[in-house]
Amino acid sequence: MGAGFRRYSTYRQATVAGAFTNTVFGFLRCYVLLAVAAGAGTATVAGYDAARLATFVWFGQGLLAVVLLWGWTELADRIRTGDVVADLLRPVDPVTRYLATDLGRAGHALVTRLVPPVLTGPLFFPFYVPHRWTTVPLFVVSVLLATVLCFGCRYLVNATGYWLLDIRGPMILWALVSGVLGGLYFPLRFLPDALVVPLWLLTPLPSLFQTPLDVLVEIDPTPRQLWLVALQAGWVVLVLVLCRVVQRRAERRLVVQGG
Amino acid sequence: MRAYWALFRGQARSQTSYRLSFAIDVVSNVWATVLDVFTVFVLFGVTRTLGGLDLREALVVTGMSACAFATGDMLVGNIERITLYVRTGRFDAVLVRPLRALPQLVLMDLPLHKLSRAGFGATVYLVALGAADITWTPGRVLLAVLAPVGGIVFFGAVFVITASVAFWWTESGEFGNAFTYGGRDFTSYPVSVYSGWFRNAFAYGLGFAFVSYYPALALLGKRDPIGLPDWVGWVAPLVALPATAAAALIWRAGLRRYTSTGS
Questions:
Q1: Which residues pair with A52 in a beta bridge?
Q2: What is the predicted ipTM?
Q3: For residues B186 and B198, is the Cβ–Cβ distance under 8 A?
Q4: Is B43 within 8 Å of A186 when comparing Cβ atoms?
Q5: What's the rounded Cα separation, in Å, for the pair A207 and B136?
Q6: A180: which chain B residues are within 8 Å (Cβ-Cβ)?
């Protein structure tokens, strides 16, 4: 975990560039969603008022780098080059080891990538401060779960490399689906209930963004918040177990590349 | 010219030789723009107007932007890989050839699979033009053709400028995305949605307002709620000219500054 933190703390310039880009997209998405609220002419759209929408957008932009939705191909690269054999020789399970490194990375992102957009947003837009004390610890738990869950999903996408070698297809599919159905582009509650409920229950995607953000802006009463976080935890367990199973099967058929 | 043609043909052959990979790329690329358009529909699911435009009018803005961005991205977008070339020093190989650097870079990675997205962008634009309530005149037909062309050139210039940043700032990483993909997102919605210094900077400072919003207003015959005169929409495609000039200047300055990695 410490190694993951230190490794990512060496890319200072890329971190600054990334935080800048997240902030610009924060402005873009925030203005559009606030215009939607203004155009709707009602006090709230799908349960969100202006302050909740703005908070949703800015924390979402910050969380993007914490859960690291896009751009992780480390495992797939190592499978392609054959370096993965070094991971298999170690006495630690690869899923556990990669997860530990990823949590270190997320810890670094929490400081460097979540803070800039979250501090910028309130300077220019209304901001929602949670009213219930239970919300903050729940949000922290939810972000942790989302990070582990996102790691699991990324691991599965990368693990297709054991069979495909070139994971461009699954990678692009994941990038597209996770952004829009995770709640990054618009709050999923903008969609009709008939779509949102199955999406939330049957896929892990809303648990990546929508759940932590909805918990934070207190869109639901406490019992419902707890329920959503529990659902998230269920997905974490399921996806991690799946990672282990996939890893085991891959190890049995793996032919290491390279010379 | 023959050398460029050979470069292009070689690229086309190598990209299409892995059929399945190419097919996956063709299909997946469309989806990025499909989701952008889908988002606009979702937003209009909860509101009637966005920045003073209804769904059909807003789709003209979105379609024009999608058409311009997707085509510009296909033609010049891969220039963003220059950060990799500069960092690794591979850019030297480009410079020692007796061809100009920019066309070489563009042709070296011309992503043919992005044709699908450019085609989809153009389709959205045409359908939006058909669905919107436009009183067609010869002038408007001309504007409807010239506006996306200006937009393509404009986005091309933006790609070149943000890529040139790599000459000064090698580890610029995602920085350029704020203006390329950020510019796409900005131009997908009416400028009246944004406000304050952010709007002034993106819309008028960087010129993104003239890519899709003002030409769309002129086509629709609507007044600008921000208060710019009506003729602005008719001359908006000309924004491509200063953008190209800026791109050429910055690119040349960057080339002169390039000193390889020394390895």
A1: none
A2: 0.90
A3: no
A4: yes
A5: 48
A6: 35, 38-39
Cβ atoms of residues B36 and B108 within 8 Å: no
Q: How far apart are CA B190 and CA B192, in angstroms?
A: 5
**What number of CA atoms fall less than 13 Å from residue A240's CA on the CB side?**
18
pTM: 0.90
**pLDDT tens-digit map of A9-41:** 777 888 888 899 999 999 999 999 999 998 888
For A42, name the nearest residue in chain B, comparing CA atoms only: B47
Which pLDDT band holds residue B261 (cuts at 50, 70, 90)?
low
Region of A220 please: left (phi>0), alpha (psi -120 to 50) or beta. Answer: beta
Q: Which of B35, B45, B50 sits opposite A190 (nearest CB)?
A: B45
CA gap B102, B79 in Å, rounded: 8
A183-200 b/e (C-beta count within 10 Å ≥ 16 → b): bbbbbbbbbeeeebeebb
How buried is A126 (Cβ within 10 angstroms: 0-12 exposed, 13-18 middle, 19+ buried)?
A: middle
One-letter amino acid at B207 equals G
Helix B55-76 with B115-131: angle, nearest 10 deg:
160
As a whole number of Å, the end-to-end CA separation of chain A is: 31
Nearest to A37 by CA among A23, A16, A19, A51: A51
Spatial contact of B124 and B32, defined as CB atoms under 8 Å apart: no
SS3 state at A45: strand
